[in-house]
Amino acid sequence: MRWEGRPQDAALELRKALLGAGDRCEVLYLLWDCQFVMGDRAAAHETLLEAKGLATGEMVARIAVAEASWLMSQGEYSHAVAKLAAVDTDDDEIRAYALSVKGVCEAFLGDVERGTATLEDARTAAHRSGSIRELTRAVGNLTFVLGSSGQHERSARIGKEALTRLGIQGLAPTFSAVIRYNLSTSLLALGRWQELDALDVPDAVPGNKAARIMLCKAEAMALRGRDPDDLIEQAEKVIEGPDALFSAQAAYTRAVAARAKGRFRAAVELCRETVADLPAALTGGEVLRLCAAGLGAARDLQSAGGRVTKLDDPEATEQELLARIPAPQGPEDEVWRRLAFAEAGRDSWDEIAVEWDRLKMPYQAAYARTRCGEPEALRHADRTARRLEALPLVKMIDRQARRQRIPLLHKDKPRIGTLTPRERDVLELLGWGRTNKEIAEELVLSVRTVGLHVSHVLAKLGASNRSEAARIARDQT
């Protein structure tokens, strides 16, 4: 049942088994796993402690690693590493589990390079053991660490490859839940929102992960000017019972949506209320984003015209949010921290834009350039925002450009006349939905040459993908 993606049913059978004779320790350990994957952390911890009291042989090491995993989930990385140091086993499956936990802890204790190396060792040990569970755990933790340290492209590549392999093997989606969630956060950061839209959330994915994937999709919707309220509410219904951590994460998504709708005061209040009562499991990066969103909304509110109700004491609100900013735990956190201070006029927007470029996070880079307000920065931001179809940001750029009387270049439509005859041939076949291989066969070219032509066509037309290039061609013929 667990392997089929039915942890709730598996937990029910395990509870029945606890009423009879047998290896109670093994049953409790399996129950802990089901409870944890379902998101029932308090019950999972109690079950684990009961199993620990009965453990003998290899189960002692397995449960010690599970305890370290629990400590890791609570942010107690040093304690988790100390517990793992006492684990002595020749079992590759247990060793892979221990390395997966250790790698995350090392990364969040400040040594990302060492942590990723340990997680690669975990993948190797998992391969040797033949355990799909440990292999997916290692990949899940690796993509988590990479995404958390701003290496979203690598995280997305590894995550997509892993999902493809699991799909070919016909394995239950429940084992890919963490990988799917990590992939969703990286696709969101990279501005690959259409891929995020297309990322499926099978019914077998546990509710706590399914709901968080929905939040990522909802944020991408909001940044494109679409109303995500229904999707956020759907995510809230997927969570079973009260969950303070999820409520805080949902508050950030709602704040992003409120800002996109111009409801700046509501966004400020959401962020203030959430950071005033933070759940312990919320990561420093999540707190940073909440503070940055609140400070940004406060700045938007103070500069908004018309009859918009202003903050009673904007300076006090600013100080309140600045005081809540935690220490950064990685490169991406560091830029979020700088962004939060820049919203309060205490950092350089152009430098922050460059840092977002290095992390390959185009939306955030465009936002920083919009705040910067220099003519070329605004034009750069405009091109990116339109490519991403980030309509609220496009409107923000237009308002800024009008105020500063800066001409934007987007009104100059891309012209097919700039294409060479061969590029026009390629564009025509793109419009028919042909692949590079099919185009190569029809035009008697190498696939590599066709790839270069496609890249030139997209660049000259300012198109973000093949479909957009074909649409531009149809509009002008």
TrEMBL record:
Which Pfam families does the record cross-reference, listed alphabetically?
GerE
Report which superkingdom the organism of origin falls in: Bacteria
Key word Methyltransferase present in the record? no
SMART domains of this UniProt entry?
A: HTH_LUXR
Q: Which UniProt keywords apply?
A: DNA-binding, Transcription, Transcription regulation
HTH luxR-type domain location:
412-477
- Among its keywords, does the record have Nucleus? no
| InterPro entries hit by this protein | Sig_transdc_resp-reg_C-effctor, TPR-like_helical_dom_sf, Tscrpt_reg_LuxR_C, WH-like_DNA-bd_sf
The identity of this protein, by name, is HTH luxR-type domain-containing protein
What organism does this protein naturally occur in? Lentzea flava
